[in-house]
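User: Sequence in, structure out. Go.
Assistant: Echoing your sequence, followed by the structure tokens.
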Amino acid sequence: CSRLIVVTEHNCAEIEAKLEAVTAELDRIKFTLDVVGTVDLDTGLLNRNGICESIQRAHRWLVRRGDIYGVLYITFPDLDVSNTSDPSYLELMKHLAATIGAGVRDVDEVGRAADHSFAVVLANLEPGALHLVAERVTKLLRQVIEAPNLTGEFQMGGVETLTASHTYGTVLDTAQRLSTQASLGESNLSTI
């Protein structure tokens, strides 16, 4: 069903104002959809989709140039996730992400994989470098965990990918599984 709208000078300004408002709302929604697709809105970090895209990019470089890449998956199982929208919880997540980020290179990407879990995509690694990065991140996290206002531990799993025979989902899932199998405060790493 269509309506015929008669535009007069009297209602022209009103129609233009409504059109501008609708256009602005449409632009906002388009921007939100672009960002929501790969970014965790609470922390500004990559979300699981963004992490998967980052792994896919690293995987393409492995196929093209033979660049080894790795994924670390870090879980904080003791954190209370009953209220993930609490500002203090979100600040803690940002602080933990910054701590993890301090242990990796600028070209590596840190993302929030779940409410209390992070993933780090390490592109263009040297063979065996995953262990060094995991040790550095572990040391930094232990310093934060030992702070008087924070209690809890972490588990870290990691995969160094040498061949292109694995999908990005397999690599991320393997790193996640290895993290759940790790002892508290320790890392569980593998090469595939």
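User: And one key feature?
Assistant: DSSP finds five helices and five strands in the chain.
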